[in-house]
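Quick start: what a row looks like.
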Amino acid sequence: MIKRIVLVMLAALCQVAAGVEPKTFRYAFPIAETGFDPAQVSDTYSRTVTPHIFEALYGYDPLALPVKIVPLTAAALPEVNAEFTRWTIKLKPGIFFADDPAFKGKRRELVAQDYVFSLMRFADPAVKSPMWASVEERGILGLAERREAALRNKTPFDYDSHIEGLSVLDRHTLQIRLKSPRPRLLEMLAANDLFGAVAREVVQHYGEQVSAHPVGTGPYVLKDWRRSSLIVLERNPGYRERVYEAQPRADDAEGQAILAQLKGRRIPMVDRVEVSIIEESQPRWLSFLGGEHELIDRVPPEFVAVALPHGKLAPNLAKQGMQLSRLINADSAFTYFNMDDPVIGGYTPERVALRRALSLALDVEREIRLVRRGQAIPAQSPLLPHTSGYDPEFKSENGDFDPARANALLDMYGYVDKDGDGWRDQPDGGQLALEVATQPDALSRQYDELWTINFKRVGIRTKFFAGKWPEQLKAARAGKLQLWMMGTTANAPDGLQALQRFYGPQAGNQNLSRFKSAEFDALYERMQALPDGPEREALFLQAKRLQTAYMPTKTHVHRIVNDIAQPWLIGYRRPLFRNEFWHLIDVLPRTKP
């Protein structure tokens, strides 16, 4: 192992001596990251960085469609009992964490206990993990009780005593035992952006600064980080020998072409990754056109007409050899309504009528046409394309634009103009004004204009207050925002993930609306335990109807995602259900158009 690391270092020195620049992949995030501790992040942008540093037990085949889960640090797929309550996993020996001062000069091997520790961190109240409720739902025996003991006794979380549901059978074997059947636990174990192994020594060494010092077993290490400005990763010199493998369908021409180019190549193929934070669309687009970035992730809507006329790559871009990756993504854009808010929250008939009227007043077709430039389809439910529970034939009030019906609902439940100023008031006579959270960028301002037009049409005032996305998210989790439009992307094929936004115990985490319904919670819990099949699909239908009836969120659209790559970027295809791809691409010497 030491000999191999020396050889890698010598090769790097030879490159420098020869004047060869390291292969660098560069692109931009439109929204700033929040940090790099897997247990403390939930936003897509941070979760795009973390899986390149940390590694979960399982991952996804980079080209297989339908998606296929494959071992990553595990030696094989889990051994599972018939009840789906006992999962036994063997790790590959000889996997090591990246070198770090926390290890005091020693090479630190990945062992089963690291995954036990990492799962425990989600339960530790001091970590304040926004994803704890997602882990809690799996019902790991004894884990929630350990957390409750720390809260009840006001003592530090006990990492040293055995937890019944997390057993280390030997150095490289982990067993997870659950309270109830969880047929899809494997999907959680494959969530590489959240459930990568974290070493206890690193957490103890860096303490509260651990989010700025990520140390994992993955293909990259964090080299530089300027918050909300620049993120730089470099090849992990001690990364194990791993080659590109994939199993695309025989009729998947694009996948077969990528496989032919990259099969057997050692990964990572790129030495360095530089991610800039460019919130405004125009400079991000111009940086790509100028060759400063290898990829533009999601062509900004303002430039779709010139870049993608009729949904195809513009001739001038195609002539340069640029490559388009386009699909209806497993995602949605939605507006949540704070169910604890004194104006729009609550479960009384008039509050339900208000939210349904707001939903009916939103002209989603106009939003798609003018702001999204046609790059979306209207949503009928919160369920996401490519996931279980999603039915492209399903139709509901969620997808309706009907201002006449919205006005009638508001009139019927007493939201009328009581003081003669031309704006509707609350049934008790109080002023009715929507406080819409937004961001300080040009695209957000376009959405704000639509909100104003939509709600003026039904006589409702709107007020806007802008804030950076990470700050708005923090306020949303604390229940301080009245309503906010945001997006979500699936990281697993199970549609139940989208329904977390309405599950009571997820309030303040994924359930930003703080919706609480015993009927909905019962459906959700039944779906957790059921295997995929007709019975579970029928429950998805019931859940969709409940969401439409109470309208704690309005799902606007499912987005069509257009990514354009430079001709010298090899192997890129937008992944489903995973955020990592930097180690699965190559950057060739640049060619001039």
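That is the whole record. Residues 534-550 form the longest helix (17 residues). The domain at 40-217 is CATH 3.90.76.10 (Dipeptide-binding Protein; domain 1).
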